[in-house]
Specification:
This protein has about 375 residues and is of the alpha/beta class. The protein folds into two domains: about 180 residues, Rossmann fold, CATH 3.40.50; about 180 residues, Dihydrodipicolinate Reductase, domain 2, CATH 3.30.360. Helices cover about 35% and strands about 30% of the residues. The protein has twelve helices and 18 strands. The strands form four sheets. The protein has a seven-stranded parallel beta sheet, sandwiched between helices.
Length: about 375
Amino acid sequence: MKKVIVLGAGLVGKAIAIDLSKNFDVTSVDINQHALSELNSMGIKTQKADVTNATIISSLIKPFDLVVGSVPGFMGFEMCKNVIEAGKNMVDISFFPEDPFLLDELAKKHNVTVVTDCGVAPGMGNIILGYHNKKMKINSYECLVGGLPLVREWPYEYKAVFSPIDVIEEYTRPARYVQNGGIVIKEALSDVELIQFDEVGTLESWNSDGLRSLIKTMSHIPDMIEKTLRYPGCVEYLRVLRETGFFSYEEMDVKGVKVRPIDLTAKLLFPIWKLKPGEEEFTVMRIRMTGTENGQERKLQYNLLDRTDRKSGTLSMARTTGYTCTAAVNLVLSEKFSRKGISPPEYLGEEEENFNFIIDYLKDRGVIYKTSSF
């Protein structure tokens, strides 16, 4: 039986470990013993360790066939580099801010396969675009995506399943998109639009830096954009906090103590953003592509509306992110995807067999992407 080690046992890392344990020998690693306890009770092997230490990582992953990275973004790049230098294949969902292609030469040197950004968006959106890019000439790509609590609760009407600092990063990192073949950079939270979704209602979309690798790998597509979705009114709160300096990483002196505002903000917001036991959430995504296929104009739409699994208690964002990752793990371990170097998920979708495998894998777990014209 193939052996997989999952670095990080947060809400998504836990879902990944549970899903993979059905077919592989899985070990989950985290610095937080409490995060490991539930996996222990399910018979999954666990180990408490500091995965920021390169020596510890190298020793930990030595007996495993593949590594899954599920740590906060600020830890992701160095962890990925350490895994590559240890000569191990990897599927990563840490969404680190650095350009993953900076590690491409290193990964090729060590003859390893590394799939980065392998979640829902970035992740499944890239896979879908990668698949259709091989079948049609695409003129435009738009992805709207968000994870939201089922019950709207004042003041933020938002709950986080990722590291709070990673969430805040979305609100501060300049948003890049492609318009008329050129890269446009705007501040995050800009260009707010109200969009209607069936079964959900009206949400607001705003610019976020979600295209990531697509800007490089799909540079031939003249118009591409990804926008994040929240309940209406949320953006105004976030802009006030950002403009006041609550998201700043620069230290300031407070009564003789050096404090980074971002650390205080994350500390204050995390309890408010944390889902209470029994609370449910959902993931909504709409992808639209236009172009030509076999000489015919096409307007293609993918819709996803996924909710917390009440039976298992697995959150939707953990399902939609985690199961895309575990589908990729299966492809790499079976050598159906073996491209060496750094591979963003759009490369996974290029082969029809692999694309269909991922779609069916998700469908078997209740994560269903519906297609239509618009």
